[in-house]
Amino acid sequence: MTDFNTVKIDLIAKLGIPYHETDSCILFCGDTLQLQKKSGSRYFDAIITSPPYNIGKEYEAVRPLQEYIEWTAEWIDGARKLLKNSGALLLNLGYIPIDDKGRAVPLPYILWDKIPMYLNQEIVWNYSAGVACKNYLSPRNEKILWYVNDKENYVFNLDAIRDKNVKYPNSKRNGKPRVHTLGKNPSDVWEIAKVTTGLNRSSEERTSHPCQFPADLINRLVLGFTNENAIVFDPFMGSGTTFESCLRHNRFCVGFEIVPEYCEIAKQRIISVEAEIKHTATQLELERAVYEPVCG
Ligand SMILES: C[S@@+](CC[C@H](N)C(=O)[O-])C[C@H]1O[C@@H](n2cnc3c(N)ncnc32)[C@H](O)[C@@H]1O
């Protein structure tokens, strides 16, 4: 089943009334585990998400570590069953403190082998600015684990995410250009600023969600690891960054989110991005009509 409308009809039949739906997006408000269990199977081309890290953010109660690991394994197994065979999981993970073990233990160390998929690569997201520490190094990275169902059959659109920032773009070897005309491979370390808050330094894209993904990060994941018209799933939708990226790049998107207030932020974001896209398309049409040469 690939057609988005068919997926939407099936999800509504199984999950009930969505919080919001459009031709390209559908958002359900509720617990991801429960919603996943009620859903059908093999709808999605990719899962792109950032789950709670169990660090006491306002949307999560801290669980004992073992319970958190089991919960993570459970939702990932549920989400994986909704993926197509050629599907991928792009999982953003940070750090947690563990009593007597470590101040900031990378979650991938704890979780990576609890995920019944093939770990294709780890991407380091370097966010270049953040809290300044005195007694240890200031943390500046999180990870994105790129899992695939089938290690011989997955989507990777290198040309869509090439890095145009090339030092010697005209360098040649044996008379042939050394660098691809679209730029270089962006490597597995991505320098992308976090969404910032605060007077005078708040990012333009900032919503009132406490842990918003930067659009540039999700855009790279959507463009590089899904094809046009793909159906992307975010089981922890938050403020709707994955919706926005999918809308801007001709992908469809399904999201689950447990906090109604965040569902409302995501809904308003969908409405405003869709209005902007429609407005731009209308402007282009008008420009085309004005500049079209008169034939005859
Ligand atoms: C790290 S945030 C995601 C932020 C999102 N990527 C964005 O750009 O806004 C995790 C989200 O998961 C939601 N969440 C936590 N537990 C959940 C659950 N059991 N089911 C669904 N959503 C949940 C939280 O409310 C929070 O919005």
Overview of the molecule:
The chain contains 7 helices and 13 strands. The protein has a 9-stranded mixed sheet with strand order 1-2-13-12-3-4-8-7-11, sandwiched between helices. A two-stranded antiparallel ribbon has the order 5-6. A two-stranded antiparallel sheet has the order 9-10. Helix 5 packs across helix 6 and helix 6 runs parallel beside helix 7. S-adenosylmethionine (SAM) binds next to strand 13.
Helix/strand layout:
Blueprint: H1 4-15, E1 20-21, E2 25-29, H2 32-38, E3 44-49, H3 65-80, E4 83-93, E5 95-98, E6 102-106, H4 107-111, E7 118-126, E8 141-148, E9 172-173, E10 176-177, E11 189-191, H5 215-225, E12 231-234, H6 241-248, E13 252-257, H7 260-291
Parallel strand pairs: 2-13, 3-4, 3-12, 7-11, 12-13
Antiparallel strand pairs: 1-2, 4-8, 5-6, 7-8, 9-10
Helix pairs in contact: 2-3, 5-6, 6-7
The structure holds S-adenosylmethionine.
> Strand pairing plus helix content: what structural class?
alpha/beta
Q: What's the CATH architecture?
A: 3-Layer(aba) Sandwich
The best one-word shape is globular
Q: Could you give the order of the helices and strands? A: HEEHEHEEEHEEEEEHEHEH
Strand content: 15-25%
Q: In CATH terms, what is the fold-level topology?
A: Rossmann fold
Helix coverage percent: 25-40%
How many β-strand runs? 13
The fourth-level CATH homologous superfamily is Vaccinia Virus protein VP39
- Overall mean pLDDT score? 94
